């Protein structure tokens, strides 16, 4: 066979491909509890990670997720156990479901309990140890599926302080007060429209925004929830807070890939259907209700996990007879970063590329 490959696919006159939306699915609290029980009873794995991915039936290898960009993993650390160190270029946010433990992330030790949320920045060494008498259970969300699809998911697991890939490397000399090489490289505007030229050093010495592990203790977050639950009936926004990590700047994320929000919706609350190219995964902390997604009804309750908004699926959520709180995770910052976050806040309004076109309003000002 020849090494010369003819890589051409004729798309002359072709229409855009119709997208295959993943279907909404619910993973029930009962099934999640059974899986947690199974993980508790496993012999301890060598790396200490008792873990199960929650995989959507339409997911394909590599990079199995619950949404195309997002994996969701159930993790258990039994009493007295801890895990090996891990370093990877995917980012994570996690929520503690039960028990208690310490997440060691970089130089920080974060002691967490039920419904606390925290983030693990990419490339920070992290590990977990149970500090209580009960199994410590957490859900983690990561962008590993994207990196696996790109075949660039870097991950290494190790004992000790120095990651294996760093063991035979020479650190760059400290810069001290010497000016940056990029300051000597060209940076010049060449057109009235703003087009510039940059020299190479601009590519390898990007301005740093420090990426830190942050902790949102539920006890503190809960204190703010009545203020959104009590917004007047007829409020047409969402009753929630973003767990905001300032390192994500205008992308309003909890990590550079995801925002996590915690909501508090009063009984019998609903809104006009909307859609967005970001996918949304809801984990229900309390209450019950139903969602309409692309015309199909999904009933859910506390402890269920729902792919509540497959990217670009029209959806609306309705609380039942009790207050509903959910942790919602969306790959919103990821899409803003690549200008692909399209949003239609109400089904009768235009589609807007959020972040590069003026956004939407709620009726908060007129309540
Ligand atoms: Fe939504």
Explain the overall architecture:
It is a single chain. The chain has 367 residues and is mainly beta. The protein has 2 domains: 26-156, Jelly Rolls; 215-346, Sandwich (Jelly Rolls). It has helices at 29-41, 144-149, 201-204, 218-222, 225-229, 332-337; strands spanning 26-27, 50-54, 71-77, 85-88, 92-98, 101-105, 108-112, 117-120, 126-130, 136-142, 155-158, 187-189, 196-198, 215-216, 240-242, 259-263, 275-276, 280-286, 288-293, 296-301, 305-309, 315-319, 325-330, 342-344, 352-353. The chain has a 6-stranded antiparallel β-sheet with strand order 1-21-18-23-16-15. The protein has a 6-stranded antiparallel β-sheet with strand order 2-3-10-5-8-14. Strands 7-6-9 form a 3-stranded antiparallel β-sheet, with no helix packed on it. The longest helix is centred in the N-terminal third of the chain and has 13 residues, at 29-41. The chain is globular, with a radius of gyration of 23 Å. The mean pLDDT is 96. Bound molecules: fe (ii) ion (FE2). The site of fe (ii) ion has 5 residues, from loops.
């Amino acid at each position: 066979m020849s090494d010369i490959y003819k890589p051409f696919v004729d798309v002359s006159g072709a229409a855009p491909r119709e997208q295959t939306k993943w279907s909404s699915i619910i993973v029930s609290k009962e099934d999640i509890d059974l899986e947690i029980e199974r993980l508790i009873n496993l012999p301890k794995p060598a790396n200490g990670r008792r873990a199960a991915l929650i995989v959507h039936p339409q997911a394909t290898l590599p990079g199995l997720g619950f949404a195309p960009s997002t994996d969701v993993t159930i993790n258990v650390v039994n009493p007295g156990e801890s895990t090996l160190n891990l370093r990877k270029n995917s980012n994570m946010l996690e929520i503690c479901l039960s028990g208690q433990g310490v997440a060691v992330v970089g130089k920080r030790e974060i002691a967490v309990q039920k419904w606390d949320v925290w983030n693990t920045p990419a490339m920070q060494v992290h590990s977990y140890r149970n500090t209580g008498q009960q199994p410590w259970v957490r859900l983690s969300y990561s962008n590993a599926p994207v990196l696996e699809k790109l075949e660039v998911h870097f991950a290494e697991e190790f004992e000790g302080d120095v990651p294996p890939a760093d063991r035979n490397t020479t650190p760059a000399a400290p810069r001290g007060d010497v000016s940056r090489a990029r300051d000597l490289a060209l940076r010049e505007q060449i057109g009235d429209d703003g087009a510039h030229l940059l020299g190479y050093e601009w590519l390898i010495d990007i301005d740093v925004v420090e990426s830190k592990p942050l902790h949102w203790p539920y006890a503190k977050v809960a204190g703010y929830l009545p203020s959104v639950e009590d917004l007047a009936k007829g409020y047409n926004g969402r009753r929630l807070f973003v767990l905001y990590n300032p390192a994500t700047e205008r992308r309003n994320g909890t990590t550079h890939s995801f925002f996590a929000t915690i909501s508090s919706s009063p009984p019998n609350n609903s809104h006009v259907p909307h859609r967005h190219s970001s996918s949304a995964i809801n984990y229900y902390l309390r209450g019950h209700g139903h969602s309409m997604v692309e015309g199909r009804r999904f009933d859910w309750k506390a402890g269920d996990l729902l792919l509540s908004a497959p990217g670009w699926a029209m959806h609306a959520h309705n609380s039942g007879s009790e207050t509903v709180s959910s942790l919602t995770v969306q790959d919103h910052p990821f899409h803003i970063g690549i200008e692909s976050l399209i949003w239609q806040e109400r089904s009768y309004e235009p589609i807007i590329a959020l972040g590069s076109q003026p956004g939407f309003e709620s009726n908060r000002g007129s309540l």
